[in-house]
């Protein structure tokens, strides 16, 4: 009997989470990178919290963007090397659905921790405490889109040797809307304004990505594995 | 319905010969229209009451900007055709579009900057259209990078086709987000250009240049397509005969 699609999704998700918790480095390293990049700005710009607060949205989002880019290394590379991805293709299940689960687990392991850690970095950048829930929400929503865009890019560069630089060239331009809306939402959160507008736009991007990106990622992975 | 015409389009030697026949039909009108448009735009059209002669760069800038976007959609369409019907010639067409599109994007950026110096007092302003053009350039560079990053031609074709389709879906979203971003962070020094209706003696040369540039693109693309087909079919006997003769 064939496994039902929901059961397959759950199996992929569980496997990814188990593997990640046995190798916690994959979760911790992007977070450390996120913190290091955010730390470079006070060192390179100014230690005055009042001035740092003005650039805090940009710093947080650019650091999050770079960190999620780095984490894409872990999305498909190991699975492609040990043949897991080929088994996905051969399993008879919808590759789109399996990659959807794979991307979801990737977000749980990289995007969500980034969002949870952002308030900590916010404090270091002079962001008032009242803004923290807003920042957390914006990053949690925005990183969904980043993981989905990243899945397409990572799938496309499967066949490229040392494709790290190319991967960033492919994904960063596509991530511009996430950066724009996310940074604006964060800015409004810091100023204490109503952040509903950019949050809706971030949510729209996430829904759009959830609908279409797994299809493109599945096409990309199929081509990459040929 | 007879589909042989469609199947013939998938044959590289047929397309090679067709492209060779069609090239002059695009190249000559393109040359004439661009010459006429330049004369009309640089000599006949009156200077702008606000910008003086500085506005005349629009006769190169606007057609380049139009082509930079149009070529990306042509490229994505060709890529989709190649992906859906597994048509190698369509992939070759998409490959020959990328370089031209990237160059037109560069031309539109450079002419925009040259226009900006006298008008804005600086070469670069984070104007939404300039910014969107810059992102478009990165999309082109990513596409060409992916193509050259994968050694196997068939795989490079299909991977870059997926990227082109993802890109064409995203371009409107990126443009919207950049416009939205600019409407919030409006720099006060930026001159706001509402579009007054253009008088005919300015508009007609502009339209002439647009059509001329588009035909020029078609001609150049056909030449590059022939080169691309020859490169891909270099081991086929018909291609050897073409090169030998």
How many DSSP-defined strands of chain A? 0
- Please tally the β strands of chain B and state the result: 0
Domain unit count of chain A: 1
Largest interface: A-B, 27 and 28 residues
Q: Give, in order, the helices and strands of chain B.
A: HHHHHHHH
Averaging pLDDT over every residue of chain A, what do you get? 91
Gap between N and C termini of chain B = 38 Å
Q: Average pLDDT value of chain B?
A: 88
Strand content of chain A: under 5%
Give a description of the structure.
Chain A has 226 residues and is mainly alpha-helical. Chain A has one domain (5-225). Helix content of chain A is 84%, strand content 0%. Chain A has helices spanning 5-22, 25-44, 49-71, 73-81, 84-90, 95-124, 132-156, 164-174, 176-191, 196-225. In chain A, α2 (25-44) runs antiparallel to α3 (49-71), α7 (132-156) crosses α8 and α7 (132-156) packs parallel to α10 (196-225). The two termini of chain A are 28 Å apart. By secondary structure, chain B is mostly helical. Chain B has one domain. In chain B, α3 (58-85) crosses α6 and α4 (88-120) packs antiparallel against α5. The longest helix of chain B has 33 residues, at 12-44. The two termini of chain B are 38 Å apart. The A-B interface holds A 152, 156-157, 159-160, 163, 166, 169-170, 172-174, 176-177, 180-181, 184, 201, 205, 208, 212, 216, 219-220, 223-224, 226 and B 135, 138-139, 141-142, 145-146, 149-150, 152, 155, 158-159, 162-163, 165-167, 169-170, 173-174, 176-178, 180-181, 184.
Tell me the layout of helices and strands.
The complex is a heterodimer of chains A (226) and B (245).
Chain A: H1 5-22, H2 25-44, H3 49-71, H4 73-81, H5 84-90, H6 95-124, H7 132-156, H8 164-174, H9 176-191, H10 196-225
Helix pairs in contact in A: 1-6, 2-3, 2-6, 3-6, 3-7, 3-9, 6-7, 6-10, 7-8, 7-9, 7-10, 9-10
Chain B: H1 4-8, H2 12-44, H3 58-85, H4 88-120, H5 128-149, H6 153-184, H7 200-232, H8 237-244
């Amino acid at each position: 009997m064939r496994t039902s699609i929901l059961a397959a999704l759950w199996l992929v998700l569980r496997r990814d989470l188990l593997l990640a918790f046995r190798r916690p480095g994959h979760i911790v390293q992007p977070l450390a990178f996120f913190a290091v990049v955010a730390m470079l700005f006070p060192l390179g710009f100014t230690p005055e919290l009042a001035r740092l607060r003005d650039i805090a949205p940009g710093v947080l989002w650019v650091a999050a963007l770079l960190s999620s880019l780095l984490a894409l290394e872990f999305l498909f590379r190991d699975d492609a090397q040990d043949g897991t991805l080929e088994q996905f293709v051969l399993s008879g299940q919808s590759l789109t659905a399996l990659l959807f689960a794979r991307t979801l687990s990737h977000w749980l392991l990289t995007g969500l921790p980034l969002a949870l850690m952002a308030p900590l970095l916010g404090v270091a950048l002079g962001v008032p405490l009242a803004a923290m829930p807003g920042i957390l929400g914006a990053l949690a929503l925005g990183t969904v889109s980043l993981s989905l865009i990243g899945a397409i890019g990572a799938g496309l560069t499967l066949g490229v040797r040392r494709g790290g630089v190319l991967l960033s060239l492919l994904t960063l331009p596509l991530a511009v809307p996430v950066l724009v809306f996310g940074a604006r939402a964060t800015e409004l959160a810091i100023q204490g304004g109503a952040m509903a507008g950019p949050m809706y736009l971030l949510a729209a991007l996430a829904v759009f990505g959830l609908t279409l990106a797994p299809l493109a990622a599945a096409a990309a992975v199929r081509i990459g594995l040929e | 319905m007879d589909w042989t015409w469609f199947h013939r389009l998938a044959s590289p030697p047929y397309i090679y010969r067709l492209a060779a026949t069609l090239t002059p039909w695009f190249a000559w009108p393109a040359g004439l229209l661009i010459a006429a448009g330049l004369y009309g735009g640089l000599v006949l059209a009156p200077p702008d009451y606000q910008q003086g002669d500085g506005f005349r760069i629009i006769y190169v800038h606007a057609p380049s900007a139009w082509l930079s976007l149009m070529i990306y959609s042509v490229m994505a369409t060709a890529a989709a055709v190649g992906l859906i019907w597994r048509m190698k010639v369509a992939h070759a067409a998409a490959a020959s579009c990328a370089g031209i599109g990237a160059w037109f994007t560069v031309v539109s950026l450079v002419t925009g900057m040259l226009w900006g110096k006298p008008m804005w007092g600086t070469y670069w302003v984070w104007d939404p259209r300039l910014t969107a053009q810059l992102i478009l350039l990165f999309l082109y560079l990513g596409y060409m990078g992916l193509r050259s990053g994968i050694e196997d031609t068939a795989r490079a074709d299909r991977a870059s086709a997926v990227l082109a389709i993802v890109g064409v879906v995203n371009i409107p979203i990126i443009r919207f987000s950049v416009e939205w971003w600019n409407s919030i962070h409006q720099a006060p020094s930026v001159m706001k250009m509402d579009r007054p209706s253009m008088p005919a003696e300015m508009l007609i040369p502009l339209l002439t240049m647009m059509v001329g540039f588009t035909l020029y693109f078609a001609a150049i693309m056909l030449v590059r397509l022939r080169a691309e087909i020859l490169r891909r079919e270099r081991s086929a006997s018909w291609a050897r005969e073409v090169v030998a003769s």
